[in-house]
Amino acid sequence: xxxxxxxxxxxxxxxxxxxxxxxxxxxxxxxxxxxxxxxxxxxxxxxxxxxxxxxxxxxxxxxxxxxxxxxxxxxxxxxxxxxxxxxxxxxxxxxxxxxxxxxxxxxxxxxxxxxxxxxxxxxxxxxxxxxxxxxxxxxxxxxxxxxxxxxxxxxxxxxxxxxxxxxxxxxxxxxxxxxxxxxxxxxxxxxxxxxxxxxxxxxxxxxxxxxxxxxxxxxxxxxxxxxxxxxxxxxxxxxxxxxxxxxxxxxxxxxxxxxxxxxxxxxxxxxxxxxxxxxxxxxxxxxxxxxxxxxxxxxxxxxxxxxxxxxxxxxxxxxxxxxxxxxxxxxxxxxxxxxxxxxxxxxxxx
Amino acid sequence: xxxxxxxxxxxxxxxxxxxxxxxxxxxxxxxxxxxxxxxxxxxxxxxxxxxxxxxxxxxxxxxxxxxxxxxxxxxxxxxxxxxxxxxxxxxxxxxxxxxxxxxxxxxxxxxxxxxxxxxxxxxxxxxxxxxxxxxxxxxxxxxxxxxxxxxxxxxxxxxxxxxxxxxxxxxxxxxxxxxxxxxxxxxxxxxxxxxxxxxxxxxxxxxxxxxxxxxxxxxxxxxxxxxxxxxxxxxxxxxxxxxxxxxxxxxxxxxxxxxxxxxxxxxx
Lengths: 350, 268
Known about the structure:
The complex is a heterodimer.
Chain A: E1 5-6, E2 14-18, E3 20-21, E4 24-25, H1 27-42, E5 48-54, H2 58-66, E6 71-76, H3 85-99, E7 103-107, H4 110-123, E8 127-128, E9 133-136, E10 142-148, E11 153-158, E12 162-163, E13 165-169, E14 185-188, H5 191-194, E15 203-209, E16 222-226, H6 233-245, E17 249-252, H7 254-258, E18 280-284, H8 290-293, E19 301-306, E20 319-322, H9 325-339
Helix pairs in contact in A: 3-4, 6-9
Chain B: E1 4-9, E2 12-14, E3 23-25, E4 30-32, E5 38-40, H1 42-58, E6 60-67, H2 73-82, E7 86-90, H3 100-113, E8 119-123, H4 134-142, E9 145-155, E10 160-167, E11 170-177, E12 180-184, H5 196-202, E13 207-210, H6 212-215, E14 230-235, E15 244-246, H7 250-263
Parallel strand pairs in B: 1-6, 1-8, 6-7, 7-13, 8-12, 9-12
Antiparallel strand pairs in B: 2-5, 3-4, 9-10, 10-11
């Protein structure tokens, strides 16, 4: 195991661990890079570096530099593709031990969510999970905002004594930064040397990526959400019709997912699911539990439709419609078609 | 080989149905969760189910291991009613306030006490903390291969493992050999119901309680003192918005919402 370090001076570097797949950077990597750059600025200037692991990933290293990373540590090697927590964890832990950054941020996608605790254990340092805010205090401590108990409790977490201070962040928490068109330094690492003496036990034999159905939640301008109040799979198609009309995406709450009305986990919005930031969120049959509302809190406008005038969701909404969605959605689709000048045709039967 | 020794990590958590009752004590800045019943962490049932299916196929032993106050031991009895041979409760005042790594340290010490193990299965995340850290960190501390986000698992009699792990829009097939620590997602299986026979049998199953002394853990490396992460201020997040009521029948209300969609520039 690679030894970590005790806290020392201030002003150390802020790192992000970038994730890539299929020749593209994961959006969350750019989002956390944006937050790292902002924190560095707010602290009066710090070095911001990215670490990129992969094969033939030089172009993506340049892309990270152009987004504003001062330095990109590139571990470009066949052994770095596809991702495995043992090979990636070993290389990262050794790089971090060598360079001693103050802060290391991970995207909490499926891989980062596993890689971050692996590295934290190797370095014996603290890791904040699924942070919803990150700020440097005047004393140079990373203040990590985390939510527990299904979004009902917000706690400020710190790693006062050990370094680096590490945090993971889910996709969609921070907005992507504007492209900076800067030119940083790319440092090519000797992966064989970094892996020397490390036991690599896992073999990733197949990576399967399924084309997502419909519009993905991330980046959708309109998200239509459904909860337990939708009541069944047949009615669910009504939400899909509405989303199609608005070129939007459909998301769901945990209870609706558990009922099996939705295509799967990847459509769940909330603390244990996705975070979205559409211009408009239209929620139907949603009770308004913090678990779900955490995932839509950055939406521009929230419209909620519920038959229960006292549903808690209305407190967390901008516009509240007390109505049966089975009547309201067809009326809304007619209204949208009319507004778009397509005539007031009947919506396709659900 | 007479099957595997499978350790299942389980955690009693405050019932997620009662999370609305979690209060923050503003003076002390700590959580007040009195009167909240404990239940078995939901995804742990899936870990136990997977262990029981492997036991049915290959024989061997299933041991439940939990770091929890002794007062939650009844929740372990509930888990034992679903199945498993015995439970080991890791309980000590010194463990209170452990972050995920300190928790993993206690669990790894507990697992070492029930050695030799072939496979450690855990729910991918807990309902209360939900860090998804513990399976990976236990694996690191035990010095064995580990995976989180497992959605399908095959273990052969010779100990070779094929696991499918969830990634964004897809999955990865990973191969390796026992021993391993795996964090299982809920998609991995459908847990069995507890039978009356199971409830009766659970009364006879041993529950061992081990403290810091018996585990031989360094007290300065566990609990609040041994945790790298420290909590600061706690608060209740607010999601409040203006909550304007849209009046009228569905047609009138829809017309108003269309106006809002237009104003937000999302009508194309």
